[in-house]
């Protein structure tokens, strides 16, 4: 969610630095590994509160006072730093339930450095400085894999954390990559561990470790951690967490108190590395819209490690990524762009440019008009509660006889023969295909366009499902050849209102909104029904003083009541018929809605038996 920067400033100035004990770092006077040993002597011998004591620590150390500011558990594997969290946990109420079949079940304790590395020994097993509360499902998916940049994801959590093949130079195994907002947090936890356990770390076997007590990390993983530390500086949340843990353990993470120590010890962007990475190869466009171009390329190599890639369009830097794919946004319709990519390392060396490709964006898409039909909803629920929904927002009727749906089983092998579609789908309407054994409590199968037991409607959370036109894939849910890792199990996915064009590249966090198991309430909702009220402005007497402003807006707007006689509710619906916001029992005269994506929405306000509906345009 949008951060309260005034609050963050107060926390930095009034809370953060003021709570470092006077003289705590007086003996930290050296440089390099000498400084690291001095820090070890400062922070060793901390109070061990026991493994169960972590949950008590979390009640003060990991509370969301920084994003939603709602007092829930702040979980780096589920927190959405720029939007609504997919789910939340209350401290002490949903821990250790033992059922981690899907995200949102329960939270538990995540050892950033797996406890198997140190044989579950104390005090490491209960050191809160590198053990955090996280969703149990995502924690299980991360397993004991090292943290690093992902090349190709086999699993993506609902907040965008990824598991997949490694993009870390020289390491070909599986790695886990958190979202950008928490990469620095995790890097500084690794640096803490390397320092606090300097006396034993040389004996630990782990892909990220080099067997030494000073450097601790392999060159490639060290470069990754240094890059993460630099790109995501210390936050107010980390400062507050450090203070809370100090109150319980009586030791601190020095790299939060003094971020400069990282480069003083491990060198940071050392000038001794003067060798640039090789140029990226096989640059290609994988998808495009009227305003965006998606790209992929093959990895560069480096004598130490590649830490990122700069993507250029018409010689202007557009984005920097750590993996081997990127999407350039904010482009102009029907315009040709010359695109190339450069690799870089932790020392700031840049490679030569990749080959340049020319890509022309699609023609303009206005008023929610799409270039083709696309998947708009996916239900993978309990038992046979499985359904797909296709939306036609092209502005014209579509003959479905050229379209088929195919499935790849368990992320490997060939596509299925295909389930053929038929009939004509009017613009603004939805086409629903369900498993004929679907529970009636979830959806009445008689209301579907197709009810079938065909293999295409027996998908599980690791089966990619594709929409084909004339035998050519145009839209996909999941990753073809993505392996057996689940990308969407026991979940309902609804296409975000900002996605108006089918895509052959699946991105859960940017393309889809996730809902709990057996959420079927929106399936088959006709966009035409929403369009019918786009111009409606029903104002009944008690609500005639309701004002929406500004309109149009850039994503944030206010709902103002001149007088409040009773609580009211707000419901916001996209032009695709998706409910994107809902809140009840509001008593404030002013409600502020933040961070709605670009699009057209209906704001519906209910108070007692009266309703007010008005269109809001987000530019």
Q: How many angstroms does the end-to-end distance come to?
A: 19 Å
Total DSSP E strands: 31
Q: Unreliable stretches, pLDDT < 50, 5 or more residues? A: 1-18, 527-544
Indicate the structural class: alpha+beta
**Alpha-carbon Rg, integer:** 26 Å
Distinct helical segment count: 11
Domain unit count: 4
Helix content: 10-25%
Adjacency order of strands in the biggest sheet = 20-19-14-13-23-24
**Coarse morphology:** globular
Largest sheet: 6 strands, mixed
Strand content: 25-35%
**Average pLDDT figure:** 85
Please give a structural write-up:
A six-stranded mixed β-sheet has the order 20-19-14-13-23-24. A hairpin with a 4-residue loop joins strand 27 and strand 28 (579-586). The protein contains eleven helices and 31 strands. It is α+β, with helices and mostly antiparallel strands and 619 residues long.
What layout of secondary structure does this protein have?
Elements: H1 5-16, H2 32-43, H3 53-61, E1 107-111, E2 131-135, H4 136-142, E3 150-156, E4 162-166, E5 174-177, H5 183-196, H6 219-231, H7 236-249, H8 254-257, H9 260-266, E6 281-288, E7 293-298, E8 306-313, E9 316-321, E10 325-328, E11 336-345, E12 357-360, E13 374-380, E14 386-391, E15 398-399, E16 403-408, E17 419-420, E18 424-425, E19 430-435, E20 450-452, E21 464-469, E22 472-477, E23 491-495, H10 508-511, E24 512-515, H11 527-531, E25 546-549, E26 557-561, E27 568-574, E28 579-586, E29 590-593, E30 599-607, E31 610-618
Parallel strand pairs: 19-20
Antiparallel strand pairs: 1-2, 3-4, 4-5, 6-7, 7-10, 8-9, 8-11, 11-12, 13-14, 13-23, 14-19, 15-18, 16-17, 16-21, 21-22, 23-24, 25-26, 26-29, 27-28, 27-30, 30-31
């Amino acid at each position: 969610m949008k951060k309260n920067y005034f609050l963050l400033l107060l926390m930095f100035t009034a809370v953060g630095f003021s709570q470092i004990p006077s003289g705590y770092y007086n003996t930290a006077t050296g440089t390099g590994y000498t400084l690291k040993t001095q820090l070890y002597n400062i922070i060793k011998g901390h109070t061990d509160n026991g493994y169960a004591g972590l949950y008590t620590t979390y009640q003060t150390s990991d509370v969301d006072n920084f994003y939603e500011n709602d007092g829930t558990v702040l979980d780096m594997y589920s927190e959405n730093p720029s939007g609504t969290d997919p789910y939340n946990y209350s401290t002490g109420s949903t821990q250790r339930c033992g059922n981690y079949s899907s995200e949102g079940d329960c939270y538990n304790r995540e050892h950033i450095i797996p406890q198997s590395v140190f044989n579950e020994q104390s005090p490491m097993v209960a050191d809160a400085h590198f053990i955090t509360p996280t969703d149990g499902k995502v924690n299980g998916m991360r397993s004991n894999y090292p943290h690093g940049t992902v090349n190709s994801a086999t699993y993506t959590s609902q907040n965008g954390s990824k598991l997949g093949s490694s993009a870390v130079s020289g390491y070909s195994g599986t790695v886990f990559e958190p979202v950008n907002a928490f990469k620095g947090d995790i890097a500084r936890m690794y640096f803490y561990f390397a320092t606090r356990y300097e006396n034993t770390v040389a004996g630990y076997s782990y892909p990220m470790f080099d067997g030494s007590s000073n450097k601790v990390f392999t060159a490639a993983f060290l470069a990754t951690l240094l890059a993460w530390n630099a790109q995501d500086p210390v936050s107010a949340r980390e400062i507050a967490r450090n203070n809370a843990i100090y109150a319980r353990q009586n030791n601190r993470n020095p790299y939060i108190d003094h971020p400069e120590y990282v480069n003083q010890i491990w060198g940071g962007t050392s000038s001794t590395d003067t060798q640039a990475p090789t140029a990226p190869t096989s640059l290609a466009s994988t998808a495009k819209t009227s305003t965006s171009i998606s790209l992929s390329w093959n990895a560069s190599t480096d004598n130490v490690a590649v830490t990122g890639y700069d993507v250029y369009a018409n010689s202007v830097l557009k984005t920097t990524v750590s993996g081997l794919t990127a999407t350039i946004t904010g482009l102009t319709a029907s315009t040709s762009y010359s695109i190339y990519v450069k690799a870089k390392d932790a020392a700031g060396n840049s490679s030569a440019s990749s080959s340049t490709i020319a890509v022309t964006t699609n023609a303009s898409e206005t008023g929610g008009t799409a270039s083709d039909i696309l998947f708009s909803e996916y239900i993978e629920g309990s038992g046979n509660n499985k359904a797909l929904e296709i939306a036609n927002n092209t502005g014209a009727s579509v003959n479905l006889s050229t379209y088929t749906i195919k499935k790849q089983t368990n992320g490997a092998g060939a596509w299925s023969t295909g389930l053929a579609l038929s009939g004509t789908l009017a613009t603004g309407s939805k086409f629903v295909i369900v498993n004929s054994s679907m529970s009636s409590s979830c959806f009445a199968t008689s209301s579907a366009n197709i009810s079938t037991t065909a293999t295409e409607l027996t998908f599980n959370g690791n089966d990619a499902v594709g929409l084909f036109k004339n035998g050519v894939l145009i839209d996909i849910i999941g990753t073809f050849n993505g392996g057996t890792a689940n990308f969407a199990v026991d979940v309902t996915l609804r296409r975000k209102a900002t996605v108006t064009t089918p895509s052959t590249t699946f991105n859960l966090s940017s393309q889809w909104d996730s809902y709990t198991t057996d959420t079927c309430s929106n399936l088959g909702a006709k966009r035409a029904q929403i369009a019918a009220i786009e111009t409606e402005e029903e104002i009944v007497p008690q609500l005639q003083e309701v004002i929406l402003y500004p309109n149009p807006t850039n994503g944030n707007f206010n709902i103002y009541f001149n007088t409040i006689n009773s609580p009211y509710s707000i419901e916001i619906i996209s032009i695709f018929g998706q409910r994107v916001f809902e809140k009840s029992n509001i008593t404030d005269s002013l409600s502020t809605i933040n961070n709605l994506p670009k699009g057209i929405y209906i704001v519906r306000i209910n108070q007692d038996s009266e309703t007010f509906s008005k269109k809001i345009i987000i530019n």
